[in-house]
């Protein structure tokens, strides 16, 4: 077992295989393997990628950005050359897949347009369309966060980390911009997560 857990790829492959066994079990449940089952799979993927995305967002803001000024200058290249680029790879692709699975889930449940318009698509009925107002707000917050990752955080991080040629001033400016947009995503993350976590429980 220790040899298995020492290998990250094998650990993840086994974890995924165990998850597939459980997912297969749900396919034999009362709903069968029709539309509701597929929605459950999409939700699982949405949560899986979302945990990776937001987990890395919190790692950057709770740990890396705060601790970097305390790291001796001779050790900082280890973070900027090896750790940060790898973390940003998983960060940006997890953001894309989280957003994509969220859109697929909303579409499969038949409320994508209602959510995108905050419940106004076919006229707003108080109480009835409130669920679309809330989940739509969460979807728009998630969309802004996703765009921030690809349009601002990643392009500026490439400059700050030296993956794109730039002088010292440009790197410093890019690092600050990346930090500000990353911090913006932290700001938006708690209200976004409130809608995602509470909507399913309150409205089903």
TrEMBL record:
Keyword entries, A-Z: Membrane, Transmembrane, Transmembrane helix
Claim: Ribonucleoprotein is one of the keywords in the record: no
Matching InterPro entries: UCP032086, Urate_ox_N
Protein name: Urate oxidase N-terminal domain-containing protein
Entry keyword annotation includes Membrane: yes
Residues making up the signal peptide according to the UniProt record: none
Transmembrane segments: 37-60, 90-112, 132-153
Origin superkingdom: Bacteria
Residues of the Urate oxidase N-terminal domain: 133-199
């Amino acid at each position: 077992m220790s040899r298995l857990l020492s290998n990250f790829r094998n650990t993840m492959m086994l974890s995924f295989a165990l998850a597939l066994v459980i997912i297969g079990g749900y396919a034999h449940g009362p709903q069968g393997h029709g539309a509701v089952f597929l929605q459950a799979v999409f939700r699982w993927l949405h949560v899986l990628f979302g945990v990776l995305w937001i987990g890395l967002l919190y790692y950057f803001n709770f740990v890396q950005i705060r601790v970097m000024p305390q790291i001796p200058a001779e050790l900082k290249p280890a973070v900027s050359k090896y750790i940060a680029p790898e973390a940003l790879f998983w960060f940006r692709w997890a953001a894309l897949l989280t957003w994509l699975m969220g859109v697929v889930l909303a579409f499969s449940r038949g409320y994508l347009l209602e959510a995108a318009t905050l419940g106004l698509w076919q006229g707003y009925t108080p109480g009835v369309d409130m669920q679309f107002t809330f989940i739509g707000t969460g979807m728009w917050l998630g969309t802004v966060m996703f765009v921030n990752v690809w349009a601002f955080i990643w392009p500026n991080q490439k400059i700050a980390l030296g993956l794109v040629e730039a002088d010292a001033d440009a790197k410093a400016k890019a690092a600050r911009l990346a930090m500000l947009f990353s911090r913006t995503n932290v700001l938006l993350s708690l209200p976004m997560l409130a809608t995602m976590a509470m909507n399913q429980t309150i409205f089903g």
